[in-house]
Amino acid sequence: MSARILVIEDNQANLELMVYLLQQQGGHEVFTATDGIEGLAAAEKEQPALILCDVRMPNMDGYEFVRCSKADLALKHIPVVAVTASVMADEQQKIEQAGFDGYFTKPIDPESFVHATEQFLSVSTGD
Amino acid sequence: MSDDYYQLIAESTPDALVALSPDGEVLQWNQGAEHTFGYSKEECLGRSVFKLVVPADLLAQERTILQQACMENIPAYEAYRVRKDGSLIYLNISMQAVHRSDGQLDFILTNNKDVTHLKTKRDARFLEARYRDLLDSTPDAIVMVNVFGRIVLANGQAENAFGWQRDELLGKPVESLLPERYHSSHVGHRSDFFTNPRTRSMGAGLELYGVRKNGEEFPVEISLSPLKTEEGVLVMSAIRDITDRKRVERELQSKNMELERANNAKDSFLAVMSHELRTPLNAIIGFTGTLLMKLPGPLTSEQEKQLSTVQRSAKHLLSLINDLLDLAKISAGKISVDMETLDAGTIAMEVISTLQPAAEQKGLQLEHNLAEDTPKVLADKRALHQIILNLINNALKFTESGRVDISLEPTLDDAGKLWVELHVKDTGIGISSEDQANLFSAFTRLNLNNNAEKEGTGLGLHLSQQLAGLQGGQILCQSQQGKGSTFTLRLQGAEE
């Protein structure tokens, strides 16, 4: 089933990769933003069913983004999944505590990425 | 003669004149006594003279002398007394019974002459003769002090350390070698030591300082020991100038802080580098994947072959980055193992099932003989998984035909400690004994024939050995060139 998904990522190549997979393989409707501030505006305007969000970004990083979105009554119901290139244990712990609904580590596995992403969609339709 | 006349005589002598009752009560106390003992007349009249006696175990003896003096003339004697400020003095004491006109005993007049300085000189002469040569041969500065706190002997090293000539030092209060702020408290400590003399280091845990003739202070370490002689107890203090050691300590401290800063910088550098290297790899592996998944469209077989090479190389690069990061974390002490009781067989089975397809593809038999009743091991789950994966992967990689067998075996060492050994046995090319020596070093790729297409970071075994060591275990290798290898992971057995 097609869903509306917002992808927030500052690296153009990685943004293209996720958008391509979600559209081409998953048939989803995808919106994009390149930092947390743009991401918040896009989320309010488009009301996506799921947000994928890079962690290290200029202007507003992923931690700040998830803090704002979870504090916003209009957005708090939308699952936010971190996509991070960080594998240091302390950073992963920080991600788990920051309010994200889950996380993927880069490099993502192109064969399983869309399926794994859709798992978060089925969770959100439940509530 | 009038009382006034007696008064005049009594007050004009520098000696302490003290009139006592037969049981030692002070009846008269002249100015000489005030000066000698530091107590005023008002403080002493009506009080017992025996509170001036040290050490306390001589009290009975002093009472007997006073009793004796009531009845007969007794010879003058020498004894220690304690002053109001706690310092000790050495007195020459004579006693004279004074009777009333009716023949009854009126009081005992005691004349106390302070001969402390004479005693000090005597001590110095005595010690000089006996100990000087001995003390000049020790590395530390030695200063001997008598009960009055006067220096009675100093060795050559003490002259050098404090900048005084030996003659200048002798007879000086030992406090003149200390910074002025410690003078008053030191007099008390000094008397305490004579009351309870035992060998000890002075002011343990405190920063102590000496002061040189020119006023310069320097850090010292001092040990004190009592020395019993026929001239009384003396204190020998061995003084070590620790200026150099303190300087080295300070330098070490600042070096340590520098190292810690550098280490922190290295850690955050690692975190950033790992992040920065993975970010472009994400797009490389990702888009190679989409092409190979044929999402954009069909591929020719040559395109598919070339893209597979790109994908393999990119994944190789990723594992290199991962291994380097792990090694860096181990060397920085950032990897902590979480030891728990585990079934090594279960973990080996997980690894075997993920590698089974690769084995089949290469036409190799990957078999296991994992008895279910093998004792459990004490290990970190993630690290154990990583090691087993690495060992079986290697076996598959370096075996062209034949089989790879995995087995578990409990053993006891000489001390009776339980170990569990996991063997990974292959029928591969084997490793020469020269190569075995370097097997576990970083970046060792063996000189194998046809190894050009074998991928590996050269870090795998090195990393596995490090991880095994973190868990109290070890990896061993047995191999003969051309006849295959057996790698054994030795793990601590979990005692029931």
Automatic annotation (TrEMBL), chain A:
Modified residues (4-aspartylphosphate): D54
Keyword Phosphoprotein applies: yes
Classification via Pfam families: Response_reg (PF00072)
SUPFAM superfamilies xrefs: CheY-like (SSF52172)
Domain (Response regulatory): residue spans on this chain: 4-121
Keyword set, alphabetical order: Phosphoprotein
Organism for this UniProt entry: Alkalimonas collagenimarina
InterPro entries hit by this protein: Bact_response_regulator (IPR050595), CheY-like_superfamily (IPR011006), Sig_transdc_resp-reg_receiver (IPR001789)
Recorded superkingdom: Bacteria
Record flagged with keyword Phosphoprotein: yes
Protein name per the record: Response regulator
TrEMBL record, chain B:
Keyword terms of this UniProt record: Kinase, Phosphoprotein, Transferase
Domain PAS: 2-73, 127-180
NCBIfam families: sensory_box
Catalytic activity: ATP + protein L-histidine = ADP + protein N-phospho-L-histidine
InterPro entries registered for this protein in UniProt: HATPase_C_sf, HATPase_dom, His_kinase_dom, HisK_dim/P_dom, HisK_dim/P_sf, PAC, PAS, PAS-assoc_C
Superkingdom, natural source: Bacteria
CDD domains given in the database record: HATPase_EvgS-ArcB-TorS-like, HisKA, PAS
Entry protein name: histidine kinase
Domain PAC: 75-127, 204-254
PROSITE patterns, sorted: HIS_KIN, PAC, PAS
A Pfam family that the UniProt record links to this protein: PAS_9
